[in-house]
Design a protein that fits this description.
This protein is mainly alpha-helical and about 120 residues long. It has four helices and no strands.
Length: about 120
Amino acid sequence: MSIANSSPPIPPPQVPPSDPSLEQYNRLMSRLSLAGLVVCPAIALLPPRKLDVYTFGLGMLWIGSANTVARNYSGLSLWDRLGRNMERDGNTAAAGVSGGGGGGLPTERAREVQRRLREER
């Protein structure tokens, strides 16, 4: 009485071949991202300083640059990190770790100190 495996075996992940144009593209994006982290805020601070569509565009370019730099250095984009933090905070709140009003403080001692400070006010 054997059980047949209905799903095919999963092949191991394949590493794409090293392509010189792809490496050049990645290097260019890395350098442009680093430049964007400096240049976008500098342009936004040049006179006339006003809050308009161009300023928001520069802000979006700055966020995109920061996202690319974070992904290059750590392997995780800003959005991946945000998702992990939100998931972790949601899991700890659901598990009751935050102490019911403790604001997610890490230890019982920290919650006790916070409670005392609130009472003193």
